[in-house]
Amino acid sequence: MGIPSSLPSHPHLHHRSVSNQTVPSCRAVPGGKGWPSADLWSALNKTIDGRLLQPAPPGAVCHPSQPTYSAAECTAVQGNWTDEFFHSDNPVSVEWNNWTNDTCLPDPTLSCSGEGYPVYVVNATTPQHVQAAVNFARSNNVRLIVKNSGHDYVGRSSAPYALSIWVHYMKNTTLHPTSFSPTNCKNVTITGAALAAGAGIQMLDAYALTHTINHTVIGGNGRTVALGGFITGAGHSILAPQYGLATDSVLEMEIVSPAGEILTLNECQNTDLFWAMRGGGGSTFGVLTSVTMKLIPSPPIMGMTFWIGTGADNTQAFDMLAWVVSQFPDLADAGISGYPIVFNTVKNFIDGSNTMIKGIIGKLILPNTNNASMLVDRMQNIFDHVNATWPAMFGHYNTTYYPDFQAWYAENYDPSPTGHENLMSSRLLDRPALTSDLSALKLALAKFSAAGQCTVYIVSGPGVHNAQPRGGSNSVLPVWRRTYVHATASIAYMATSNVTIEDTMNHDAKELTAFFSATMRDLAPNTGAYMNEASKYETDWQTTFWGDNYARLLAIKRKVDPTDVFWCTPCVGSERWAQEDDGSLCRV
């Protein structure tokens, strides 16, 4: 996209003024006392080489009342709205509409304003750009947020009345083919390949780059997932059960702190922040500008696609499903991982008929082998038990060999569409939750999949349990070290011009999310959830997302960011502020 050399002479959208913002108990808002003058914004723009943007929401091109209206561009935007790359490449758009409060969708029958979006954006390509933005926000009492790719299930990448630091174009990379020595760590050389990458690098590019030296990064399955938010939140992967979480492979980080300092974090310096930034969450302790990660030799992959189904009226369907899911810890311990999905009363996608079915479908992998027998034997044992125990089940599996991880990923990346309203709930499940009470598991799976499906991803196992992060530990939720399954349920819905219906849908989606969260909390009360893919409205989120690490994380947050330059929710240390109904951010 083109970067204007100077600020536009007028804002693309009129932002609502909020009165009585005369004391710093709230962040400054446009039109209110304390909002920086045009001269101050222009001075910031000069400091960052003309990279300050004042973008209109992308959907504004569909609204005749807006300055950027264009019928031709509207058609293009509507055609791209479900494309993750469209949102990733836009300075203010995010992948799920509800996180901008549906304030300007590409539908002319709906209203449009900029009130769900940041006012200004720093298109940062250097740490110095980030530094200038942080210093400006801190000095001028302006709400500060960070957007990377916008692939964010808990809505941290957008906010009203804010200055946004957009790190999407921080894509510098360096491959270290044989070893890496952390900065200022005397006599420390970490053998093996490593990748140093800007925070804006996305999975598609990270996999392609590391493939050039026959290695791979531990990464996510979505193509637009960027390293910044992924790493700081822990980062689950289909390779994690064998090799650890993504953040377990972090060797060094560069960040801009709330005080505006450019810091290097590793096992020898800034060790508290190094610990906190590896699992403590993004947009909280500073802005990650680059990260160095240990790579693994790209393993050959034996892949499998499988499904087991039955008629939706089969009362034994969830007996079968609970037993199959109870086998997952043993699969993980045997080196198998994957992305199974339970489906609950959906149209028959197997034969295309109008019948309704229940069951499970998924992709599994076994790395470092070209021999299908171990995977086949394990799955055949499951199929044999199902056939012998429950009548009227049907299923299928097939295997494919891939010479390396990149070949597997090219065929099996997550193609999920974006551009709709989406709320998620999730829970991490350990062996007791999955095996000790199949009646409880049966009930939980039936409730958790009530919206049509739920995931039961095998993304933890021995590699996560036995991980040895640099510096001895990191701040990821300790429950990961005994987890096997990351289970999620999502509610997708569409915006409407009827305010009453819209409010009802939002309310119902939140209620259903709470129901899903409670269902899995009842099944696994002593675990928690993966904070990057969870409910924004999780109760007791401090314990759910960070467990016993929260007290130390909070102490670090208070020390490095005493005035809460960085604020998001549910994020470490966010308790002192809340977003008001009018969008302003105020102390509580």
Number of strands: 22
CATH class of the largest domain: Alpha Beta
The CATH topology of the largest domain comes to Vanillyl-alcohol Oxidase, Chain A, domain 3
SSE class:
alpha+beta
Would you identify the regions where 5 or more consecutive residues have pLDDT less than 50? 1-23
Helix count equals 18
Biggest β-sheet: strands ordered side by side in the sheet: 17-14-16-15-19-20-18
Q: What is the count of structural domains? A: 4
What percent of residues are in strands?
Answer: 15-25%
Mean pLDDT: 94
Shape: globular
Instruction: Measure the end-to-end span.
Output: 39 Å
CATH architecture of the largest domain: 3-Layer(aba) Sandwich
Radius of gyration: 24 Å
How is the biggest beta sheet arranged? 7 strands, antiparallel
In percent, how helical is the residue content? Answer: 25-40%
Quaternary structure of the protein: single chain
What is the structure about, briefly put?
This protein has 588 residues and is of the alpha+beta class.
Helices and strands in order, then pairings?
Layout: H1 38-47, E1 52-53, H2 71-80, H3 84-88, E2 120-123, H4 127-140, E3 143-147, E4 162-166, E5 173-176, E6 179-180, E7 190-191, E8 194-198, H5 203-211, E9 215-216, H6 227-233, H7 240-243, E10 250-256, E11 262-265, H8 271-277, E12 287-294, E13 296-297, E14 301-311, H9 317-326, H10 328-333, E15 337-347, E16 356-367, H11 373-389, E17 394-402, H12 405-412, E18 421-430, H13 431-435, H14 438-448, E19 453-458, H15 462-465, E20 483-493, H16 499-523, H17 541-546, H18 550-560, E21 577-579, E22 585-587
Parallel strand pairs: 2-4, 3-4
Antiparallel strand pairs: 1-2, 5-8, 6-7, 8-12, 9-13, 10-11, 10-12, 14-16, 14-17, 15-16, 15-19, 18-20, 19-20, 21-22
